[in-house]
Specification:
It is a single chain. By secondary structure, the protein is mainly α. About 55% of the residues lie in helices and about 5% in strands. It contains 16 helices and three strands. It has helices spanning about 35-40, 45-55, 60-70, 80-85, 95-105, 115-140, 155-165, 170-185, 190-200, 205-215, 225-235, 240-250, 270-285, 290-305, 310-320, 330-350; strands spanning about 20-25, 30, 35. It has a three-stranded antiparallel beta sheet. Strand 2 (about 30) and strand 3 form a beta hairpin. Helix 11 (about 225-235) crosses helix 15. The longest helix is centred in the middle third of the chain and has 26 residues, at about 115-140.
């Protein structure tokens, strides 16, 4: 046994994957070999979801069948609706989302079947139903009635419909769709690795996704987009932004939305999401939020040479769209369900129990007196 300890498994290659990679030669996150920037420009979220789950972009017939299956599986049971209605109003939406997926596992007819065909069906049902459940929770928290899915709408259009009872402009829908694509997958991040560890014991897909959600909740992972929005609101105005961030740096406080372990020259998803964040701000005629963001970004780069990550533009974009801050990470789940399911199926295709060793650092052998 080696005495070398890799805290946080930094630099440890635990397995191989065909799902995604940050390719150093182009400094870009890629899904199945395609740069995410190109996918955002030329595809919608449904096409990218198909790519992640099946390995290739769909042809028109494949896309049509995929969309039809997703749309016809959007409805959630009355039992789950009642469960959502009875969640405590002060419960964090990530906790309720975690419980929702666990409930879905109780109802799914394929829960105990880990065959490739069954897991693909479960992946599709999870993709279709998680958005319905999150939107239902969003409305119940506001004292509003649940809105059933509209099967005539695209994935992103339908999420707005179920959340607000209306679909915004195509520009806003596109910005949301882009965020779905960018959040969909990111290799062996903490939540994906958690899902793969659970899967490696031959547990079920819903259980693995529940574990992924629990991991994603943390502010060092998915919860960072919530922290960014709270930070921007705390700053309040552009004239206070530089002083705010300088004080954070001076006091050595953790500043969310900046830095990433994987990227050498900045998060490759940021330029695309920032473009659509600014477009969203322009549509809603909000000039202040982008000003604050630019000052924070420029100050961090000047003082610490640290660039923002995806959460930095995504958080304020969701806020402009009208989503409550504590629902930002559940929206992340709505997207990342595709990446998790792709990895769960990949883990099962060549499975080995993930069971690392540890170095004992406790008391030496002793006896009870």
């Amino acid at each position: 046994m080696s005495d070398e300890i890799k805290k946080g498994l930094v630099g440890v290659v635990s397995d191989e994957t065909k799902v995604s990679e940050v390719m150093p030669e182009i400094n870009s996150l890629t899904y199945r070999g395609y740069a995410v920037q190109e996918l955002c420009a030329k595809c919608n979220f449904e096409q990218v979801a198909y790519l992640l789950l099946h390995g290739e972009l769909p042809n028109p017939d494949e896309l049509k069948a995929f969309e039809e299956y997703e749309r016809t599986n959007r409805n959630i049971s009355d039992t789950l609706k009642n469960t959502i209605k009875n969640y405590p109003n002060n419960a964090h939406p990530m906790d309720t989302t975690r419980t929702t997926v666990s409930h879905m596992g109780l109802e799914d007819p394929d829960t105990e079947d880990n065959s490739p065909e069954s897991n693909m069906r479960k992946s599709m049902r999870l993709l279709a139903q998680i958005s319905t459940a999150v939107a239902a929770n969003f409305r119940i928290r506001k004292g509003q009635e649940i809105i059933n899915p509209d099967l005539s709408l695209s994935f992103s259009e339908n999420f707005f419909h179920m959340s607000f009872g209306k679909v915004p402009s195509p520009e806003v829908v596109k910005a949301f769709d882009v965020s779905m694509i960018l959040y969909a997958e990111h290799s062996f991040n903490a939540s994906t690795f958690t899902s793969r560890v659970i899967t490696s014991s031959l547990s079920d897909m819903h259980g693995a996704v529940v574990g992924g959600i629990a991991s994603l909740k943390g502010p060092l992972h998915g919860g960072a987009n919530e922290a960014v929005a709270h930070m921007l609101n705390e700053v309040g105005s552009a004239d206070k932004a530089e002083e705010f961030i300088l004080n954070k740096i001076k006091n050595k406080e953790l500043i969310m939305g900046f830095g990433h372990r994987v990227y050498r020259d900045g998060d490759s998803r940021v330029p695309t999401m920032t473009e659509y964040y600014y477009k969203t701000a322009e549509f809603y005629q909000n000039k202040e939020l982008p000003k604050i963001s630019k000052i924070l970004e420029n100050t961090m780069l000047r003082e610490k040479k640290i660039k923002p990550n995806l959460d930095f533009p995504a958080g304020p974009a969701y806020q402009l769209m009208g989503f409550d801050i504590d629902f930002f990470t559940p929206i992340f789940v709505v997207s990342r369900i595709t990446g998790w399911c792709a990895h769960i199926m990949e883990q099962l295709s060549s499975n080995k129990l993930i069971r690392p060793l540890s170095k004992y650092a406790g008391s030496p052998h002793r006896k009870i007196n």
